[in-house]
């Protein structure tokens, strides 16, 4: 049963809430809670911590069982506590910017006077949640390559650290693929950097289409790209490398009315006990340069360097 659905606007909240809190001075507990929340919620830039603090404080006064928050535009649902039949939903807005929907859950009906008090307290969430969203957007931007839209080297390193921890903890396979576009310097030298940038963008799009759903692509730097292969041992990584190598070599990239037949040198490294991000990248890099020194358009696995693949070309 939905009891309420309304919009809370930060401008209205800022003008009215401090005055409302003081008007309710007769309820010293509510006034103290308002000012306490106003201070404590500003201490975090993470939605989960902000909502957990709010829920903990408000539950003491109103027996709120749970809070859910769907942040726009992703609409990823974050739930603190438990969902219950009775709920009150609010759309949060700051300066005409809708940035999420928050729902309160309780096992029994919320009375009108309780809703009025809760709406007063909900105003303390608007600025912290908006600040958290801006912070998370800035973090995401700092981990994204602006040219291709892929994750950058920082994002790749952080993700690889997590994947290594999972592989080590659960004894699961993990492989790393490092790709370098062959003779890319000649594209820039002959056609200019704008054309080179178009080639890089199309190459990154191609990798995205070739990846399995569980694979993640990153621009490592320049014309080098990395693919993290989850749950993939060395043999499986070699199968993936040949599939990707062949698809790249078969693809014609058109940029500024010029056609390019692109190939790539590919190095592979499979996770070994005790590996770090640096050691896996180093082994994949060494394997890739073995191919680069042989003319490119091939792959080599660091764990099987005596079995360098040959395209027969």
TrEMBL record:
EC main group: transferase
Family annotation (Gene3D superfamilies): 3.30.70.270
Compositionally biased spans, kind Basic and acidic residues: 12-24
One Pfam family cited in the UniProt record for this chain: GGDEF
Catalyzed chemical reaction(s): 2 GTP = 3',3'-c-di-GMP + 2 diphosphate
Region named Disordered: 1-24
GO molecular function, one term: diguanylate cyclase activity
Residues annotated as domain GGDEF: 172-304
EC number assigned by the record: 2.7.7.65
InterPro entries in the cross-refs: Diguanylate_Cyclase, GGDEF_dom, Nucleotide_cyclase, Rev_trsase/Diguanyl_cyclase
Source organism superkingdom: Bacteria
Cofactor names: Mg(2+)
Family matches, as PANTHER family: DIGUANYLATE CYCLASE DGCM-RELATED (PTHR45138:SF9), REGULATORY COMPONENTS OF SENSORY TRANSDUCTION SYSTEM (PTHR45138)
Annotated protein name in UniProt: diguanylate cyclase
Species per Swiss-Prot/TrEMBL record: Pseudohongiella nitratireducens
